[in-house]
Amino acid sequence: MRYVAVLDACVLVPASLRDTLLRAAAEGLFRPVWSRAILDEVGRTLSLKQNLPQDKVERLLGAIEEAFPEAMIEVDLGQQHATMAAPEDCHVVALAIAGEAQVIVTFNTSDFHTQPLAARGVEVQTPDEFLEDLFRSEPDLMAKIIEEQAAALRSPPQTPADVLGRLRRFARNFVDAIERHRSPGGHGPG
To answer: 71 with 159, same domain?
Structure first.
């Protein structure tokens, strides 16, 4: 069974990380879910903090929604889950429950209360932990995703090593695992 993962706004902002996560989802390694509030937060962050022009933000979010139409989950914001997360992240918990997610992928792990979430069958993971899990389940496919991600970047051209260099900031252990896998003597494509 393909599991369901909430992708918190903070993991959808960095381009290299967003690309890797969404490529893994497109390959069927997991089903992503998000809410309007999460995508709105991504848009605000890209516009205000990364100075991405609004038209580019709208095109990016539109492409994400078009690629994953089943990912948008309506969340009852009146339903509070204060015992499971910091107040600003209760909507993420509500989404995880409404979307029947097994994992919340976020950099803000300390904002979530793991015991009550675990009782509901939801684990909180950093992007590094999540990508490591995907790698452990499908090492060759994850290595292929990195190669395809690099091949898709043309301005300027990128190599898999370039992509991994950008990802290292967000997912050091995953990058180390991919590099070992891709190296001569590793088990994957070199």
So the answer is: no
d(CA 156, CA 149): 13
CA 115-24-48 angle, to 5 degrees, is 75
DSSP 3-state percent helix, strand, coil across the chain (nearest 5): 60, 10, 30
Domain that holds residue 144: 131-182
Q: What is the pTM of this model?
A: 0.91
User: pLDDT (tens digit, 9 = 90+) per residue, 149-177?
Assistant: 999 998 888 999 999 999 999 999 999 99
The Cα–Cα gap between 80 and 147 comes to 42
Q: What is the pLDDT of residue 122?
A: 92
119 part of a folded domain: yes
* Residue carrying the six token digits 């580019």: 56
Query: Same structural domain for residues 23 and 80?
Result: yes
* Domain total in the chain: 2
